[in-house]
Specification:
The structure holds 2 protein chains of 2 kinds. Chain A is of the alpha/beta class. Chain A is built from 10 helices and 20 strands. Helices cover 23% and strands 37% of the residues of chain A. Chain A has 3 domains: 1-273, no CATH class; 288-377, no CATH class; 384-437, no CATH class. The relative contact order of chain A is 0.09. In chain A, α8 crosses α9 and α9 packs antiparallel against α10. In chain A, β1 (87-92) and β2 (95-96) form a beta hairpin. Chain A starts with a helix and ends in an 8-residue tail after the last helix. By secondary structure, chain B is an alpha/beta fold. Chain B has one domain. Helix content of chain B is 26%, strand content 33%. In chain B, the strands form 3 sheets. Chain B has a 10-stranded mixed β-sheet, with helices on one face. In chain B, strands 13-15-18-21-19-16 form a 6-stranded parallel β-barrel. Chain B is globular and about 70 Å long. The chains are: A alpha/beta, B alpha/beta. The interface between A and B is medium-sized, with 35 and 35 residues.
Chain lengths: 437, 482
C-alpha cells in the first residue's frame, strides 16, 4: 500500500487514541483532508523542484510504534550536550521517556504536547497558539492531522530561563521502518528569554522518516535562540517545518547544523508581525556520500523597520546534493527593511551538486535588501601559504574549510554547542583542529 | 524655481503618454482570424515556400496544439485568444524598390516620425536597415556592400528561397519547434524576419539592423531571426522597435536563433519600446520572445537589451556554451512603469570547458509595475573551470511597484566558480543630498543617479544605438534621464 493511503487510512485508528470531541480534533480532521487532497509534494512543485521524496516514501513505515523501549543514559549520553545543566524532553520512538527527561512546571512550563492538548489548564494557550501559523502545505498538514505528542514550552512574561532546553528524539530500530511526527509548540511571552536545542537521532540502520512541525511564538521583546543539530545516520530522513511568529522588538535566531541524514529538508519560516524585529537564520551544512540537504527559508517582512539576516554555508563532497532556496518577501508597508541573505558553497567532488535559488520579492521602495551567493573552491594561494609553513595538505584543507564556516559559529551563544559543533566539523573533515574556541 | 522631487517624477511618470503612438494607414492584405492547418499552408504558399518548410511548420503546429500556455512567470494578464488573431498581414505595396523614392510615402513619413529616416541613417550611421513593417521586408539597404564581403543579410523568406541549404541546416537547431509554447507557435506561423550569414573569417564592416514595427490592427507579429556567424567571423546585430498606440492587446511571439561557430563572435543588441499600455494599464503589447544562442569552441555571444515597452514581457535571451572556452554575456536594462509587467533574465548553460558567462541586469520599476529578474546558471558535470558572475540590481520608485529576483543556480562541477549578487534600493536621500550640496538640482541628480545605475549596460550598446536607447529611456522615465 502506498504511504499516502496508509496514512489516510490509519487516521481512523488514530482517532481511537485521542479525544475526538476536543476542538483540536476539528483542526486534525481538516488537516487530513488537506493532505488527502494534496498528497506528498513532488518535484513538479516549485518549492520541491530540487528535492524528490520518492526514495524515502517507498518504505513500509509503521506509523504507530508499539511501545517505549528503555534506553540507558550512558548509551545515548553522547547525543546530548551533556556537559551543561539543562532541561530535557526525550522521546524514544515517538513516546515520551520520563526516565531520560527532566521537565519542569516551576515558573515555566517545559513539558509535553500530549498533556497540553488534553489538560484544561493549558486550554487557553492551546486555543490561542496551536496551529495558528503552521502553513497549509501538505507535509505540515500531515503532521497537524496526527499531532498528539511533542514538546510544549511556555515561558511567561519577564522570565529568563537559565538552563537551555534540549529536545531529543531517538529511534531505536525496534520497528523495521518508522515514521515519526512530533509536534512542538514554543510560546515565549513578553521580555522572556529561552534557548532550545533540538536533535533527531536514529540508533540503528533501520529507515526512519521524521516529519516534524514546530511553532514558535516570540512576543514583545522576547528572545528565542534555537539550535538544530542534524547529524543523523544515512538511513534517517528529516522534514523539519518550523514556523516563527514574531511580535515587535523580538529577536529570534535559528542555527541549523546539517551534517548527516539521507534527505534533510528544513522549511524555516519567519513572519514579522511588528516593528523593529530581528530575525536571524544561519546554517552550516557539511555532507558527503549520497546525502541531500535542502534549506528552504522564508522571511516575510510585514511591518516597517525590521531586519533579517541569513547566512548559510555549505560544503559538499562525494555525490551529495545541496539545495538552498531562500525567499525574502517585503510587503508594501514594510519600509526601512534591512534584509540580507548570503549563501556560500564549496564543491569538493565532481559528482556533488548545488542548486541554489536566493529569491527577493520586494514591494516596498525604501528598503535595503541584498543577497549574495557563491559557489567555488578553496583558495589555492591560501593553501600554498599554509603548506609552505609546514601544515600538511589535509590539515590545511581542514583549516580552510573550518575558517569558511566559522562566522556562522560566531553567533552561537552556548560555548558547549560551539565546541561540540567544532568537533563534529573536525570529524567530518577528518582533521584534528587543535585549538579551542 | 520650485524643487523637483521624486514625487514630481512619479507624477510625471504616471501622466506621461506614449509619445510615439501613431498609426500609419497602409492598406494591408490580411488573413481571416484563426489558426488551423489550412492557414499555415496558406501562409507557406503565400510566401512561395518549398515543401520542406511547409512540413516543418505543420510539425510545429502539431506540437503546439498539444502544449499549454505556460503560467510560471511572475506576470498576470488576460491570455490571448489564439483563434481571434490574424496570422498574416503584409503591406500591399508589394514589389521591392530600387530606391527610396518608390517607397510608399506614408511609410517613409512613419520612419521620419521615429527619427530613422533611411537617408539619414545611410549617411550618418552607416547602418544597413532591413526594415520590417508588419511582416514583410519592404526596404533593404547596403545589400550590395555586404554582398561584396559575401555576407548574406536578407529577410528570412527570401533566404528560404535563395539559400535553402543554410536555412534548412540551422533553423530550429537552437530553438527547436517544441521548445516552448510560444516558440512552437512562432515556428508554425512565422511570417517573416531576418536572416544573416557571415562567412568564414569575415568581420562585418557595419552594424546590421532591423526595425520592427507592429502596424496592422489585431495582427500578431511572429518574427523569426536567424544569425549564423561562421568560423572566425564577427557581427554586431541591432534590433529596435516602437509600436503605435492602440487600445487592444497585441501579441508578439518572436524567435531569435544565433549560431556562433568556432572563434566567431556575435553581439546582439535590442532596444524594445512597444506600446506599454496607457496609464490605466489598458492595451499594450504582449511580448513573449524566445532568444537563444549557441556557442561553439572559442566563440562569444553577447546579448544587450534595453526593455522599456510592452505591457507584458516574457523574455530570456540565453546562451548555450557548448564549445570549450566560449563566452556568454547578458546585459539588460528593464524599465517598467504604470501597469507594465516584465519577467526577464537569461539562461547560461555551461557545457564546455573553461566557459565564462557574465550577467548584468538592471531593473527599474515605477508606478504600479512589476519587474522580475529570472535567470538560470547551469554548470554541467563536464564543464571544467566554468566561471560565472551575475549581478542583478533593482531600483524602486514609489511604493506601489515591485521588484523580484529569481536566480536559479545549479552547479554540478567542483571547479566551477559562481558568484551572484543582487541588491534592491531606491534613490537614496543621501545621494540626492550629496548632489544638491554640490549645486546639482534634484532633477539633474535623479537623472545622474539613474544614468549611473544603468551605465554598465548602456556602455555595452553600439554607438549608433546608444543614442536611440537614451531616447527610449527618456520616454519611459522622462525627467530622470538627462
Amino acid at each position: 500500500m502506498e504511504l499516502k493511503e496508509k496514512l489516510v487510512s490509519s487516521f481512523m485508528a488514530f482517532e481511537d487514541t485521542v479525544d475526538v470531541n476536543s476542538p483540536i480534533h476539528d483542526i486534525r480532521t481538516e488537516a487530513i483532508k488537506t493532505f488527502e487532497a494534496d498528497g506528498f509534494p513532488t518535484k513538479k512543485q516549485e518549492a520541491w523542484k530540487y528535492t524528490s521524496l520518492n526514495s524515502i516514501l517507498k518504505h513500509d513505515y509503521s506509523v504507530f510504534p508499539k511501545h517505549e523501549d528503555a534506553l540507558e543514559f550512558k548509551d545515548v549520553k553522547k547525543y546530548f550536550i551533556h556537559d551543561i545543566d539543562s532541561y530535557k524532553i526525550v522521546f524514544i520512538d515517538g513516546k515520551y521517556s520520563s526516565h531520560l527527561s527532566q521537565t519542569t512546571h516551576d515558573g515555566i512550563d517545559v513539558c509535553l504536547m500530549s498533556a497540553a492538548l488534553t489538560k484544561p489548564k493549558y486550554r487557553l494557550v492551546i486555543e490561542n497558539y496551536f496551529n495558528k501559523i503552521a502553513s497549509k502545505d501538505s507535509m505540515s498538514a500531515l503532521n497537524t492531522a496526527f499531532s498528539a505528542e511533542g514538546a510544549y514550552i511556555h515561558i511567561p512574561k519577564n522570565k529568563l530561563v537559565e538552563k537551555p532546553i534540549q529536545i531529543l528524539h531517538f529511534s531505536t530500530g525496534n520497528e523495521a521502518a518508522l515514521m515519526l511526527q512530533p509536534r512542538n509548540l514554543v510560546v515565549v511571552d513578553e521580555n522572556a528569554h529561552v534557548q532550545i536545542i533540538e536533535r533527531h537521532q536514529s540508533l540503528t540502520e533501520n529507515p526512519v522518516l521524521t516529519n516534524s512541525v514546530t511553532e514558535i511564538f516570540t512576543n514583545k521583546r522576547a528572545i528565542v535562540d534555537y539550535y538544530k543539530i542534524q547529524n543523523d545516520r544515512e538511513t534517517a530522513s528529516l522534514i523539519d517545518n518550523t514556523f516563527i511568529d514574531q511580535k515587535r522588538e523580538s529577536l529570534a535566531k535559528v542555527h541549523t547544523f546539517s551534517f548527516g541524514g539521507k534527505i534533510t529538508r528544513n522549511n524555516l519560516n519567519f513572519y514579522q508581525n511588528g516593528e523593529r524585529i530581528d530575525s536571524t537564520m544561519k546554517g552550516i551544512t557539511i555532507i558527503g556520500n549520497k546525502q541531500h540537504v535542502d534549506h528552504n527559508t522564508l522571511v516575510h517582512h510585514i511591518e516597517p523597520n525590521c531586519e533579517s539576516h541569513q547566512d548559510y554555508k555549505g560544503i559538499f563532497g562525494d555525490s551529495a546534493t545541496g539545495v538552498f532556496n531562500g525567499k525574502v518577501l517585503v510587503e508594501k508597508e514594510a519600509q526601512k527593511t534591512d534584509a540580507f541573505q548570503a549563501n556560500n558553497n564549496i564543491l569538493l567532488s565532481d559528482k556533488a551538486t548545488i542548486n541554489t535559488k536566493p529569491q527577493l520579492e520586494i514591494f516596498a521602495d525604501d528598503v535595503k535588501c541584498s543577497h549574495g551567493c557563491t559557489i567555488g573552491q578553496l583558495d589555492e594561494s591560501a593553501m600554498f601559504y599554509l603548506r609552505s609553513r609546514g601544515i600538511p595538505e589535509k590539515e590545511a584543507r581542514g583549516l580552510l574549510m573550518f575558517a569558511f564556516s566559522n562566522n556562522v559559529l560566531d553567533s552561537v551563544k552556548i560555548p558547549e554547542i560551539k565546541n561540540r559543533i567544532t568537533k563534529i566539523i573536525a570529524n567530518k573533515l577528518g582533521v584534528n583542529i587543535g585549538f579551542d574556541l | 524655481m520650485s524643487k523637483y522631487t521624486e514625487d514630481d517624477l512619479r507624477e510625471e511618470l504616471k501622466t506621461k503618454e506614449y509619445e510615439y503612438g501613431f498609426y500609419t494607414d497602409i492598406e494591408s492584405e490580411t488573413f481571416p482570424n484563426g489558426l488551423n492547418e489550412d492557414i499555415i499552408k496558406a501562409i507557406s504558399r503565400k510566401k512561395e515556400e518549398p515543401e520542406w518548410m511547409t512540413e516543418w511548420r505543420l510539425e510545429a503546429f502539431k506540437v503546439w496544439q498539444e502544449m499549454e500556455e505556460p503560467d510560471w512567470a511572475n506576470v498576470n494578464y488576460e491570455k490571448p485568444d489564439f483563434q481571434a488573431i490574424s496570422y498574416y498581414s503584409a503591406p500591399n505595396s508589394k514589389p521591392k524598390y530600387d530606391s527610396l523614392d518608390e517607397v510608399d510615402p506614408e511609410l517613409l513619413a512613419t520612419f521620419e516620425k521615429l527619427g530613422i529616416s533611411l537617408d539619414e541613417q545611410k549617411k550618418l550611421a552607416g547602418v544597413a536597415m532591413d526594415v520590417v513593417v508588419d511582416s514583410v521586408s519592404v526596404a533593404t539597404t547596403f545589400k550590395e556592400t555586404l554582398a561584396e564581403k559575401g555576407i548574406i543579410f536578407m529577410s528570412i523568406s527570401e533566404a528560404i528561397k535563395e539559400h535553402p541549404e543554410l536555412v534548412k541546416k540551422y533553423i530550429g537547431t537552437v530553438v527547436p519547434q517544441k521548445d516552448n509554447f510560444y516558440a512552437a507557435l512562432n515556428s508554425a506561423v512565422f511570417s517573416d524576419g531576418s536572416f544573416c550569414y557571415i562567412p568564414k573569417g569575415v568581420r562585418c564592416p557595419m552594424e546590421l539592423s532591423t526595425y520592427f514595427r507592429i502596424n496592422q490592427a489585431g495582427t500578431g507579429q511572429f518574427e523569426r531571426t536567424l544569425v549564423i556567424a561562421d568560423e572566425g567571423s564577427y557581427v554586431s546585430y541591432l534590433e529596435g522597435c516602437t509600436a503605435p498606440s492602440r487600445d487592444e492587446n497585441q501579441l508578439h511571439a518572436a524567435v531569435v536563433e544565433l549560431i556562433a561557430l568556432e572563434d566567431a563572435e556575435i553581439k546582439y543588441s535590442t532596444v524594445q519600446n512597444w506600446f506599454p499600455g496607457n496609464a490605466e494599464g489598458k492595451g499594450g503589447v504582449f511580448n513573449f520572445v524566445t532568444k537563444r544562442g549557441l556557442c561553439e569552441k572559442n566563440s562569444k555571444i553577447s546579448w544587450t537589451q534595453v526593455e522599456t515597452g510592452s505591457a507584458v514581457t516574457w523574455k530570456y535571451p540565453s546562451c548555450v556554451l557548448k564549445g570549450d572556452n566560449s563566452v556568454g554575456e547578458f546585459y539588460s536594462i528593464a524599465v517598467t512603469n504604470n501597469f507594465q509587467q516584465a519577467d526577464t533574465g537569461t539562461k547560461m548553460i555551461h557545457l564546455g570547458k573553461n566557459t565564462k558567462s557574465t550577467i548584468i541586469s538592471k531593473g527599474i520599476s515605477a508606478g504600479k509595475s512589476q519587474n522580475s529578474y529570472r535567470g538560470l546558471v547551469q554548470i554541467s558535470p563536464r564543464a571544467e573551470n566554468a566561471r560565472n558572475f551575475s549581478q542583478c540590481d533593482s531600483l524602486l520608485m514609489g511604493n506601489e511597484c515591485g521588484a523580484h529576483t529569481f536566480p536559479y543556480i545549479e552547479a554540478k562541477n567542483k571547479t566551477a566558480q559562481i558568484e551572484h549578487e543582487a541588491t534592491t534600493s531606491k534613490i537614496g536621500e543621501d545621494q540626492i543630498f550629496y548632489c544638491n550640496q554640490r549645486g546639482i538640482d534634484t532633477e539633474k541628480a535623479i537623472a545622474l543617479i539613474v544614468n549611473g545605475f544603468s551605465k554598465e549596460v548602456l556602455n555595452k550598446l553600439p554607438m549608433e544605438f546608444a543614442v536611440e536607447a537614451q531616447k527610449l529611456l527618456e520616454i519611459s522615465l522622462e525627467g530622470s534621464v538627462g
